Amino acid sequence: MNFDLDKRTAALGVGEFSSFTLGPRESGDGVGGGIWRAHLGTHWHNELRTRATAEHGAAATFEIPITGQVAHRGWTLTLTGRIDQLIQPPAPPADSGPPPETASAAGAAASTHRARRAAATRPVILREIKSVTRPLPADETELRRDYPDYFVQIATYLALGRSGLLRAATPAADAFLPGDTATVLRGELVFVETSAGLVQTLTLASAEDALFTAQLERVVEFLNLRLRARERLRGLRYRPPFPSPRPGQETTLTELTTTFEQRPLVLFEAPTGFGKTGVMLEFALGQLRSGHFDRVLYLTSKSTGQIQVVDTLGRMTAPEESPAAPGAAVAPTPDLAQPGGTAAAPVRATPVAVWHVRNKGEHCVNATFHCVRDNCQYLAGAPERWGRSGLARFYLDEQHARDLETLRAAGREARICPYEITRAALAFNDVWIGDYNYVFAPGNRGLFYDQPGFLPARTLLLVDEAHNLPNRVADAYSHGFTATDAYTVREDLNRIRPPASLLSAWDHWCHFLHHLRPSDGLSADDEDDARHLLGEIAKHVSTGQLDYAALGPYAADALWSVPALLDELEQSTLPRLWWSPRGAELALTCLDAAPAIGATLREFGGVVLASATLTPVDGFAAACGLAREAAPVIKSAPSPEPAQPLPERLGELNKRTTRKLYKQLTTAAQLLRVEEARDAATPTHLRAHAPWRDGTYDVAFDARVDTTFQHRSRFYPETGATVVALQDAAHTPVAVFFPSYAYADAIRQELATSTPEFRVAVQPKVRDLAAQGAWVEESLSQADALFLVLGSSFAESIDVLGGRISHAMIIGPALPEVNAVQRARLAEAARQGLSRDAAFRQVYQIPGMTKVNQALGRLVRAPGHRARVLLHCRRFTDAGYRDLLAPEYQAGTTILDDLAFAAWLNRA
Ligand code: SF4
């Protein structure tokens, strides 16, 4: 839906209009949409088209593009759509000439006249075809309950037609539409059962106009609420995130705003402990208030980070007297920021509406997390209960509590899935906080992208901890299957007697997986076989009628995932490796998600990618599909090409369309516009200045040892002795970062033999943040050295080391393990035209050195912290590695022998 709140206009498709709802919606047959359903739908559309042509000849026309404009409660809605079939009544008999002179001739004329009158009152039929997987014929009440939007859709066409508001969207279609309001119209909804082709036709009465009017009310209520939100944002008041800014913070907001206004795609690098979350939030609230954006999305990969954002926003907008949840009104305070930068007048401040989006499983209040109607009382009948549930308070009242427990309690009480409250309320919130997946993962992005009024071009996207984004998105596009899992699903299927065709397709899949042998890449034949088998399963899942409640969540998810995967493979051309890491296992590993990331980022009106570790910036930009020369394909240009309107926003320029545009350009002004748009789509790097970090790192490059996999064991004694010497100099525990657990364990063993009294604590494999923190605290008090693994959550998330550790050591550049995926990535980089060195840098050196930068950055987190750091491997003296260090770690002492090491250690 596109709307203009100032002009009070909205434009949307009839389908979108018909399915618009602010509460839960029925999922119909529960199988969902996707390409497979679309294929089936097209098949049955064509089939019924053939039948209609045979029956009505030229009186039947198809896919007629229409538009209609409706005024309702001060809003003007423009609806567009396509009527599947339009059947004209038979032409009236021809005029029989002069008046009859005989009785028999008079009789014939009277009969012709009656026939003509009858023909004149015969209706024009408007038909919508809908394919469903449920058995037909079905009770009409059930069909109305399960597919309410289909009924609204045909009612909309009828209402527009009867009011004379139906217009042809193309001149060619004009001839087919009823010319005036006197034409009798009849609506037909034709359901087709996908598996057998059985047809059930329902005729809509004129009373169905009420469906159309009720839908108009819903849409207009939504638009009025958006208008209210816009007015609220214009008066938004908030206080700065920091009571007194640290050196560097005070100028960063201005720099970020200025940089962003020049190019709305900013790579914002600020050290750990800088307070970049606060800076970004203050920047975002300013953008909202100035009306540049309708909404802000704040994405970060960890729920602890998301909670921190909620808390910071709460502090920025809460009353002075007592901290409150975000959304609470802000009492007047002297430091409230407002337009013009002056102190706020004593007015009641306007809240900002914030929604922290948790995953569906966390919302669940059912005994089992299995979202099918027959299994979940919170899903069955939810649309009917929604109207009287009072849950609309979650979006009507911006100050209503919206924490998970409140949602769950409200959902339980109203017997409506709490996730539906989140889904309904989201559109009315100004800031959405959640995981990357809600924007970047094809299986999860529907929650955001299907929200009414969500327009990426009018949305500011903030991505925190952005160095994680490329890997996270690649993971979202990677998939795995095992024969063991497949056999478990088969057992579940056998319990419920599924259609034989589906069982047979699944059996073939089990057999295929079972016989897979470990391999670095499937042969072309095997890959073809796998695709074919998955296609067969998808076909049967999409057409079959299964008792998903009886099947259970595990097998149901496994079956649903197959058509979803095939949709994904069809829609994206990301490079993937089909391989078998172990026998009887198949992995589809995404080798490079850059095109998908870049395409998504370019959809947004503005983007800030923030992290403490974006260096090397060229590598990060390339991994996000933002390198100028590697601009990804966003959408294919239409062909044949009429003169295209020039792109208006960030997302519409890419390499291919640019080439096409250049061919069309005839004036220098046009050329200039293209260049400007291309420039705007190129990221700008902004590095926050933190003067309190200047000179805080004392770095040494230890060239005495070689930590490459082939040679490291020769140097175990030196490495062990170096750890002990470092701790001797520090007099407190030291942190030692290893590229792997195995390496850490080898040095632990070395020390246990050479220096048994030296106490080493090796990082445990726990994910819980509290447990990690407890281990660090205990180790700091009891061990001489903490052995940590680079790239693990200990190295990335544990902030307590800052100021507590004075000496640290990095053992080697933490290059990724050489395996089939890395080899395939190397080959893919070469295929994209990178030289051997450039490909090695991209695939091995940058990821490895990013982990090093990440670990080092956490050692100095506040003014007064200092760290002496030994980079323990001769590779660190190589420019190829050294240049990938963040600037503050690049200068240091090179250590060639033990004497030099001792001198560095003993230096004051
Ligand atoms: S619909 Fe909601 S309550 Fe029911 S199983 Fe799914 S998440 Fe749980």
Number of strands: 25
Which small compounds were modeled alongside the protein?
A: iron/sulfur cluster
Strand coverage percent: 15-25%
Distance, first to last CA: 66 Å
Specify the structural class: alpha/beta
- Cα gyration radius (Å): 32 Å
Number of helices in the DSSP assignment: 35
Q: Summarize the main sheet.
A: 8 strands, mixed
Mean pLDDT: 86
Q: Which percent bin holds the helix content?
A: 40-55%
Overall shape: it is elongated
Low-confidence runs of at least 5 consecutive residues: 322-348, 629-656
Furnish the topology, listing elements before pairings.
Layout: E1 2-4, E2 9-13, H1 14-19, H2 35-56, E3 60-72, E4 75-87, H3 103-121, E5 124-132, H4 140-146, H5 148-162, E6 166-168, E7 185-193, E8 199-204, H6 209-234, H7 249-262, E9 265-269, H8 276-289, E10 295-299, H9 303-317, E11 354-356, H10 360-363, H11 382-389, H12 393-396, H13 404-414, H14 418-426, E12 431-434, H15 437-440, H16 446-449, E13 459-463, H17 469-476, E14 479-482, H18 483-496, H19 500-514, H20 524-543, H21 548-551, H22 553-571, E15 576-579, E16 585-590, H23 594-601, E17 606-611, H24 617-623, H25 655-664, H26 668-680, E18 684-687, E19 697-702, H27 716-730, E20 734-738, H28 741-754, E21 760-762, H29 769-782, E22 785-789, H30 793-797, E23 807-811, H31 820-831, H32 836-857, E24 867-872, H33 879-882, H34 887-890, E25 893-895, H35 898-906
Iron/sulfur cluster (SF4) is lined by residues 360, 363-366, 369-371, 376, 378-379, 417, 419.
